[in-house]
Amino acid sequence: MGSHDSRVDAYIAAAAPFAQPILTHLREVVHGGCPVVTETIKWGFPHFEHKGVLCSMAAFKAHCAFGFWHPQMRGQSPAKAGEAMGQFGRITRLTDLPRDAALCDLVRKAAALNEAGVKPVRVRKDAPAGTPAAPDDLAAALAGNAKARVTYDAFSNTHKREYVDWIEGAKRPETRATRLATAIEWMAEGKVKEWRYVRR
Fold first, then answer.
1. DSSP code at position 37
2. Among candidates 43, 12, 1, 31, which has minimal Cα distance to 135?
3. Domain that holds residue 143
4. 177 occurs within a structural domain
5. Residues 140, 73: one domain?
6. CB 170 within 8 A of CB 179
7. Residues 165 and 109 occupy one common structural domain
8. Is 121 among the domain residues?
9. What percent of the chain shows pLDDT beyond 90?
10. Coil/strand/helix, residue 23
11. Is 174 helix (H, G, I), strand (E, B) or coil?
């Protein structure tokens, strides 16, 4: 059987009134799709784990967000995915979510990928010009740490890309989570990724 974390109860209770039924519903759907899922809090918001990180949800001032962690799940989302963290855009009401059966199927698919140990398929790209887009987990972690966010926003595109590429380059969810936590710690201290090599 899966497990519930009292910290997730507290997170939902502390969320804005509009967000509470959305978060409660997402929690129920995730447990319905993967009955053995376990809950935890990472980077200040709820995560669901089964053989690695499965998905996460978060509440903001005016919307909620929900998304799967495995890169191969990113194509399973609506067209409005780019509106906010996660793959379902800005969720402000229950009707913004897919039908329960469809969402439950996505949870099962994500769990199956983790159970099978499917490695993320990464495509090599030429380094793009301009500001790199922060991946969903980095954006959420920055939103939960004001000091790190100020540092990241002040970075040049090069320094932003160093962190983004480092996090995206992780081959395992556990490695990615460790890199993300380290990145937030370093940025909260005002450090660039290669801070050890900066001349003092």
1. -
2. 43
3. 136-197
4. yes
5. no
6. yes
7. no
8. no
9. 38
10. helix
11. helix
Of 100, 103, 104, 88, nearest in space to 34 by CA? 104
Q: What is the pLDDT of residue 78?
A: 53
200 pLDDT band, cuts 50/70/90, is low
What's 44's domain CATH number?
3.90.1150.200
d(CA 48, CA 57): 9
Taking a C-beta distance cutoff of 8 angstroms, is the pair 19, 90 a contact?
no
pTM for the predicted model, two decimal places? 0.62
Tokens of 107: 């949870």
- Token pair, residue 53, equals 């990180």
Please measure the distance between the N-terminal and C-terminal CA atoms of the chain and give it in whole angstroms.
53
Q: Per-residue pLDDT tens for 134-185? A: 888 898 888 888 899 999 999 888 889 899 989 988 888 888 888 899 999 9
Mark whether 93 and 173 lie in a shared domain: no
Rounded to whole angstroms, how far apart are CA atoms 17 and 2? 27
